[in-house]
Amino acid sequence: MLEPNTRWVMRRVDEGAVRILAEQLQIAPLVARILAGRGITDAENARSFLFSDGIFYDPFLLPDMEKSVERIRRAVRDGEKIMIYGDYDADGVTSTYCLLKTLKTLGADVQYYIPDRLSEGYGPNEKAFRRFKEEGIRLIITVDNGISALHEAKVAKESGMDLIITDHHELKDELPDAYGIIHPKRKDSKYPFKDLAGVGVSFKLSSALLGKPPSELLPYAAIGTIADLVPLTGENRWIVKKGIPLLKETKDIGLSALIKNASLDMHQIDENGIAFALAPRLNAPGRLGSANLAVELFLTKDPGTAGELAGELSRINQERQDLVNRITGEAVEQAERLFRERDDKVLVVGDPDWHPGVIGIVASKLVEKFYKPAVVLSYDEENGTAKGSARSIHGFNIYENLAECADLLLHFGGHPMAAGMVLRLEDVDELRSRLNRLADQRLTEEDFIPLTEYDCRASLQEITLDAVEQLEKLAPFGTGNPKPKILVEDVRLSNCRKVGADENHLKTVLQKDPAFLEGIGFDMGPFADHISPLARASVIGELGINEWNSTRKPQIYIKDIAVNEWQLFDCRGNKNLPLWLAKVPEENRKIIVFRETTLAYIRERLDPGAVTNVFSDAEAESAVLDGQNVVLLDLPPTKNRLVKLVQGKRVSRIYAHFYQERDHFFDTVPEREHFKWYYAFLLKNESFDIGRHGRDLAKYRGWTERTVHFMTRVFLELGFIEMEKGIVSVNRSAKKRDLSESAAYRELREHVELEKELLFSTAEQLKNWFDRLLKSKIGEEKIWI
């Protein structure tokens, strides 16, 4: 057995729709199955999704777009001062740049302002707005924020400044009293697509102002859209599909410097490079300092300055990573201490030394490690408050549960999987208690097992190069359009091995005759010790193409593995006992020793107290092995001992070592003709000095000397001969008896047969024998190899 790391849930698939899509679009059934599972069952919609860039809607369908455009154009015409009020994350800085670039193109007198995350916090603030008034600003345009700025909107109005809000965050019941609110989710909005990022809304405004979508801004819109984790469907898909090719060819000095500093191949950039290399660098300055650095990078025309700014972004990003690593380590220690004191279902941890700019990332890492909802707090002891970020798991809506604790919170907001809050320090313990009580009521044990949603099952024969190339047409992948995960069942994982400098990755080949598929599992190296090449496994993974020396072939990026049957690990002949035994999980490990002589062998290699002695059939039959990883350290003295030990029991794994001091299998087992010749020889010789001439006789007959001594022992047991001081003579009065009446004869025959079946059988034969035995009931007839 090998339990998967996660719960596996398959999307529902309409097989009728699969057949229609495959036939009408002439696509692989695997691709059709994935489309159908994602709700794309109409052939025309599927054709559009695969083979076109999508739809760009008329920006004037957005509420207040027309009046906002007229107001901005009037401001440009009249020379009024305009202030763009941005946000400090990657979505915010790209939103700011897109509108700033557009207004500068139109000749506007425009500035931008991004609040400081630590001193001002998210969104508009009164102090900044009053300063704008003093500076002669007549029009404020927010990007990626502002929808909750009820008070600040009043301040702007009272100060004689018009306010246009462009945002995409969740709406509250009351909207700000602003000149215009451009938001796709407004209740009165007829806009066809609701999930634009902040930069998407900013890009729509730019498109309306310029009379067409500005292609030069699409790379920035694509970066911000991917960075903000909005669904990559609908119009967001159009933005990213259009933007990435333009990003690969960009001549923008700042963007080029950022790409170079991130060590990305410009012509190979995809959504992963944006998400994991560019977006973190754009997010970092807003977390630890001023997000203006990112906007200035985009604005500069000087290559030298661009290189310096890109380098600074990378330095800050590295500082952010180091900070996250330190705080995560401390948070993990604090969480584990809470586990010891009480088994909390919701982790609430905090410290005055934790930077508030990274606590959201730390919360995500806690969820990743413990798979429990996590609230990470930064304590402000001077003001007596705590600022927090929460991340959750499926089944626990963190926003709704925080709402039930609203009396403890000075401010809070968010959505089902993430939230932010501010509360008094004295209320932290009460918040922890209440959230845990709510979790006790609403979460089951199963909820604390991570969830993996996969698209469909697939056979190895279906995973062709052509099918995988077709799958790539589903890109770009991200939130709302994840890379497809498929389940491959009943395959053997051959040649499992650890790879990488730290041997932390898994390399294997999935096999089910006649097909095979190479697989790689990143950070799954330990699995190599827990998968038998004989086992039938189920694998969930993402499909890709491996290119090497101009050869392209499909491969699977393994995400999880399960083995739903008991496993046999063939350790026969392995001399390094401590090394291979260390690979056996200590939990549920049961080491079996059949012979007292083996205890001497293991004394210097293993604590004898860690083994279970099975020196009798009664001990074998009573041994509890269900769910255990059973190590058969030595060869049993009889087959029956092993049968009684394992028959009908539900073991998880068997590690077959079968140590013995020496093998008997390659001894010459005398046949009846050998005994007849030897007896006749002894009859001819009145006395035979076996000590002096036994070796010569063996050499003459082509036997081993051990064979001569063995036949002598059998004859003695049967009374056929007498021996005194090494001299053998025939007992002529002995009665006729069968060789099998000799205990020595029977013992050797049985032991040789035992070695043949347990030591010298193939691993496949041994597995089949154990299979039959484990499935049979106690008392049934024994079946041997």
TrEMBL record:
Domain Single-stranded-DNA-specific exonuclease RecJ C-terminal: 567-770
Pfam families per the UniProt record, alphabetical: DHH, DHHA1, RecJ_OB, ssDNA-exonuc_C
Limits of the RecJ OB domain: 454-560
GO molecular function: 5'-3' exonuclease activity; nucleic acid binding
Limits of the DDH domain: 81-225
SUPFAM superfamilies recorded: DHH phosphoesterases
KW Hydrolase (keyword) present: yes
Keyword vocabulary terms for this entry: Exonuclease, Hydrolase, Nuclease
Entries under InterPro entries matching the protein: DDH_dom (IPR001667), DHH_sf (IPR038763), DHHA1_dom (IPR003156), RecJ (IPR004610), RecJ_C (IPR018779), RecJ_OB (IPR041122), SSDNA_exonuclease_RecJ (IPR051673)
Domain of life of the source: Bacteria
Gene Ontology biological-process entries: DNA recombination; DNA repair
Domain DHHA1: 344-438
Entry similarity comment: Belongs to the RecJ family.
NCBIfam families on file: recJ
PANTHER family per UniProt: SINGLE-STRANDED-DNA-SPECIFIC EXONUCLEASE RECJ
Protein name per Swiss-Prot or TrEMBL: Single-stranded-DNA-specific exonuclease RecJ
